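SAMPLE LOG
Freezer: B-3
Tube label: C17
Construct: single chain, 171 aa
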Amino acid sequence: MSILKDLNSKYRIDASKSASSDEEIKKMIEFADVQIPEDFIEVIKELSEIEINVDGKKYIRIWGADGCIEMNAAYSIQENMPNSFAIADDEGGNALIYTTGQNGFGLYVIAFNDLDVDELQYVAGSLSDLLINNTGIDVIKNSCQFHCVAFSLLLNTDLWLGIIWLFNWCV
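STRUCTURE (predicted):
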């Protein structure tokens, strides 16, 4: 079974890079402090840095093995949230991570700037559930965090432009 070939119709791959190598995947597995589910490994053996359009409203960017190591290290994911491993982002400041939260082990979304277990939002039990069965799509589409407001207000001196930008980004 290929998750990427069986994507739910709510998703569309808009960009990607070549697959992660076996050596890159081995390094990623050694780096991670959780057991990385096989469905994620299968995906990055096909493609990496996959930009998936979510229902025309948002993107999920699934990193390759090297990208996972880079982003987990850059954001100190394991230091802030032990027993977790980020595999993707929404190109808007949120990470998609494997961890154990209130709903058990699975995929959760959390803002990069607020890596606190109390802020985890459950998405799905697996990447397959998310991408094939559409489980958790609403969580992904609605994962607009407070940082959007703060960022918008910092960048725009005109409050109305900031509000319009935020509305368009979250919708």
